[in-house]
Amino acid sequence: MKKGKITDWLIKSNVIQAEDRDLYDYACRSLVFLFAPFVIALVVGMVFRMVAEALLMAVPYVVLRSFCGGFHLKSIKLCLVVSTLSYLAIFSIGVFVSCDIFYYVTAVISAVSIDALSPIVSPDKKIDSGRIIHFKLTAIILSTIILIVVFVLFIMHIGYFSRFLTLGMLLTASLQWPCIGGSHIID
């Protein structure tokens, strides 16, 4: 899809003013990035006939990702391909691994990793120290809430569903790990 096509249509239809183009381009792009993980989850879920589980895995990822940061690809098309493959690989763990202790350990490691590394800020973005602290605290609070929900579900013997929340945290954490060496954007 051509960049700005929706914004062009809104301007031609006199819904928005031309001087607001940048704002609406940003809003449209943000919506795409908000819904893309759910679309990917839906596709993966349909392949495995596990739509609820796949969508459940997307929730922690969508909630955490904007506060945690991580690596990005410059090309949106490549990003969607890599994101789909990453999602598929991590979702497959939930399909084929049924050991509860694995998910306990993975949940804790993912939460600790997210808490320690967040936020990973791209060198291309300037963020003041106040916002960095806000992002870090938000990531810690959200990952802690998700971790508590995971353990409550395990205690209630609903571990099957908590494994997919755990894997959503793992997906978020795994996108931070390549940035540890300083590489935030891959061509």
Describe this structure in words.
This protein is mainly alpha-helical. The protein has one domain (37-179). 73% of the residues lie in helices and 2% in strands. The chain has a two-stranded parallel ribbon with strand order 1-2. It is globular. The chain crosses the membrane at residues 31-64, 76-95, 133-158. Keywords: Cell membrane, Hydrolase, Membrane, Protease, Quorum sensing, Transmembrane, Transmembrane helix. One of its GO terms (molecular function) is peptidase activity. This is Accessory protein regulator protein B.
Strand order of the largest sheet: 1-2
Q: Average the pLDDT over all residues and give the rounded result.
A: 88
Number of domains: 1
Give the uncertain stretches in residue-range form.
none
Kindly provide the radius of gyration, computed on alpha-carbon positions and rounded to a whole number of angstroms. Answer: 18 Å
What is the helix fraction of residues, given as a range? over 70%
- By DSSP (H or I, 4+ residues per run), the number of helices equals 7
Regarding quaternary structure, how should these chains be classified? single chain
Q: What is the overall shape?
A: globular
| Spatial gap, N to C terminus | 20 Å
H/E topology pattern: HHHEHHHHE
